[in-house]
Amino acid sequence: MPHRDPPLEDLTALSLFFLDKFSLDCKNIYLMRSQGNSFLIRVIGCEYQNEIFSLTQSVLECFFSVYTKHLVDQFVLLIYVKHSERWNIRFWNCDGSSAKACGNGTRCAAHLLYLLECSGSEMVFDGPIGELNTCVEKGEFEKKSCFVDVRQGKGRKLSLDFVRKKISKKKWEYFNRIGTHIGLVEFGNFHIIIVVDRDPVSCIEFYRKHFFESLEDCDCQDFFNISYLNFSSFRNANIATWERGVGPTPACGSAACAALMVLSEISPVSKILLNFPGGPIWVRYCPKFGYCHKAQSFYDLDISIP
Ligand SMILES: N[C@@H](CCC[C@H](N)C(=O)O)C(=O)O
C-alpha cells in the first residue's frame, strides 16, 4: 500500500493558543501514515517538563482505547511544555513497549504540527535520547500530504558480540548463513542489518515462520529491529524490516539510517534510495545532522477521544 488518496475528512484545527490558554489536552487523536507505517498521535500540554514522566499509564490507556478500532504500528505523544516553550515527543510500539526513536513517527508528528499550525516548516523535538530536527518540504492537498525530512542523528555502530549474546544460537547461525554482511547500529533503538542476495520480504516471512512462531526457538521476545537488505547498485536497494514490538512493518525510518550506515562499511556510499514494501525512503548522511531520511507523510483521520 505505497500511496493513498488524500482523505476528505475535516481536520479539527488546534492552535498553540488553544492548547496554552484553554486546555492542556486536545480532545482528539490523529491517525497519520508514512510509507504504510501508521501512527496514532496525541497532542497534550504540560506546565513543566517533569510532569511528562507521570503521564504514561493514562496516555497508554487512551491510545489502546482507540487502537481497538484503528490498528496502528506505533503511538506517538506530543507534549508542549509551557514553561520551556518546547515540544517533547515520546513513542510506544503497538505491543505497549516504549521506543527510544521512531523515524516515521517523527515525520508524521512534524507534519501534524505543521498542519495544525502549531509550528512552521522547521521543527525541533526533544526526544527520548535528544533533539530531533525535522523539515516539512512540500504540502499538497491543503497540506494533508507532505514530504518531511527527519534528521535522526549520528547513531553508533556496535559490536556483533552484543547480538550473539542476546539471541539464540539457531538465529545467529541463520543470520550468518544468509547474510553476506551483517552490522549492528543504535539510533536509540537497536537495528541488525543483514545484507542478503535474495528478496528481503521472503527473509521476513522465513523469520516469522521459523523464529517468531516456532515454539522450538526459545528466544521469542523482540529485542532488535531486524532488516534484510538487497542491493543491485549503491544508488538504490530493497529492504524489509521486522520491527521490535510490531512485527513485519511496511517501512522504518530509523532502519533506513541504520542500513546506510552498515552499507558504508562495504562501500563509500553517503546516500541511497531504499525501497520498503510500503514505499521509498531517501536516506543520506550529512555532517551537520548525521543521518537524514525523507519520505511522504499523510494525514488520515481525526478521532475523538472516547
Ligand atoms: N518504525 C520506527 C521504529 C520504531 C521503534 C522500534 N519498533 C523499536 O522499538 O525499536 C521507525 O520508523 O524508526
TrEMBL record:
Protein's UniProt keywords contain Isomerase: yes
Reactions it catalyzes: (2S,6S)-2,6-diaminopimelate = meso-2,6-diaminopimelate
Protein name: diaminopimelate epimerase
Active site: 102
Protein family membership: Belongs to the diaminopimelate epimerase family.
InterPro entries hit by this protein: DAP_epimerase_AS, DAP_epimerase_DapF
EC number(s) given by UniProt: 5.1.1.7
Gene3D superfamilies with a match to the protein in the record: Diaminopimelate Epimerase, Chain A, domain 1 (3.10.310.10)
Keyword Membrane among UniProt keywords: no
One GO MF term: diaminopimelate epimerase activity
Domain of life: Bacteria
Keywords of the record: Amino-acid biosynthesis, Isomerase, Lysine biosynthesis
Pathway: Amino-acid biosynthesis; L-lysine biosynthesis via DAP pathway; DL-2,6-diaminopimelate from LL-2,6-diaminopimelate: step 1/1
A GO term from the CC aspect: cytosol
Enzyme class: isomerase
GO BP annotations, alphabetical order: lysine biosynthetic process via diaminopimelate
